[in-house]
Amino acid sequence: MKYDLITVLGPTAVGKTKLAALLADRFNGEIISADSRQVYKGMDIGTGKDLQDYVVNGSLIPYHLIDIIEPSEEFNVFRFRKLFYETFKQITGRNKIPFLVGGTGLYLNAVLSNYNLKEIDFNKKRINELNKLPVIELTEILKSLNPKLHNTTDLKIKNRVIKAIIVAEQSTNSQSNEYPKLNPLIIGIKLERELIKRNITNRLKNRLKNGMVEEVENLMANGITLEKLMFFGLEYKYVSLYLSGKLNYNDMFQKLNSAIHKFAKRQMTWFRKMERSGIKINWIEGPDFESAGKIISKEFFDEN
Question: Is the predicted pLDDT of residue 258 greater than 70, yes or no?
Answer without folding.
Answer: yes
